[in-house]
Amino acid sequence: MRLEVEIEHMNSQPRVHVLVPAAGRGSRYGGAVLKQYLPIKGRAVLARSIMAFQFHPLISTITVVLAEDDQLFESAVGTLAAAVETVTGGDTRARSVRNGLQSILDKHPDDEWVLVHDGARPCLSAQSLDRLLEQGLQSPDGAILAMPVGDTLKCASDEQEITGTLDRTGLWAAQTPQLFRARALADAIDAAEREGRELTDEASAMEFVGAKPKLVMGSVANIKITHPSDLPIAEALLTRREVTSS
């Protein structure tokens, strides 16, 4: 009887699919190697981004979105390549995510929820992931990890001269993962694209159609590799995590 109850509980859990867009060219980072394939503590940045979800009990499948001419993925992530599905991206992040969502909707119709996570964000902790899933799965419009803005924000001219200071009250810096129902996110991206709206993240698509995703406290350690100086910071964060968990 106990085994039957446990099986029934597992079957009642929501099925969450992870979507990792990694088709970008990393124009802000620069360099000969795409930032998602840079090595960080012996593994590619993208590999570490995928590993954050690999053994979570609520994650059913992981799909990675790659550029059409990507020839590095399998060699860069090693055995992880066999544990994920891949799909070809588009010319924008939104289009890459939309391609990934279509693949999920076609191949995994039972995966109601999707977690979208940056391929160049390798330091996501288990605690942050659990917090997002716990709160986000209870939110009708989904949720994202984010951090309250602590720095003073300046507006700048084309000449990088200060033109004003923004009130940071109520401002949050968005992170990933971002959690939404797969079909709702796909429809929201379609609606935004029909109106020519530029989308900076998945939450902005949901906002466009009137949804109000929940903000879930993230972590300053959940950094995205955007500039060369970010890589040693990420390495230090991962090293500290390994030391404290040992």
Protein topology:
Elements: H1 2-12, E1 16-22, E2 39-40, E3 43-44, H2 45-51, E4 59-66, H3 73-77, E5 85-88, H4 93-107, E6 113-116, H5 126-136, E7 143-148, E8 153-156, E9 162-166, E10 172-181, H6 182-194, H7 202-208, E11 214-217, H8 230-245
Parallel strand pairs: 1-4, 1-6, 4-5, 7-11
Antiparallel strand pairs: 2-3, 6-10, 7-10, 8-9
Helix pairs in contact: 4-6, 6-7
Structure description:
The protein has helices at residues 2-12, 45-51, 73-77, 93-107, 126-136, 182-194, 202-208, 230-245, and strands at residues 16-22, 39-40, 43-44, 59-66, 85-88, 113-116, 143-148, 153-156, 162-166, 172-181, 214-217. The protein is globular and about 50 Å long. The strands form three sheets. A seven-stranded mixed beta sheet has the order 5-4-1-6-10-7-11, with helices on both faces. The chain has a two-stranded antiparallel ribbon with strand order 2-3. It has a two-stranded antiparallel ribbon with strand order 8-9. The termini are far apart. With 246 residues, it is an alpha/beta fold. A hairpin with a 2-residue loop joins strand 2 (39-40) and strand 3. The chain has a single domain (11-245), classed as Spore Coat Polysaccharide Biosynthesis Protein SpsA, Chain A, CATH 3.90.550.10.
Strand order of the largest sheet: 5-4-1-6-10-7-11
The SSE string, one letter per element, is: HEEEHEHEHEHEEEEHHEH
What portion of residues is helical? 25-40%
Oligomeric status of the shown chains?
single chain
- Major sheet characteristics: 7 strands, mixed
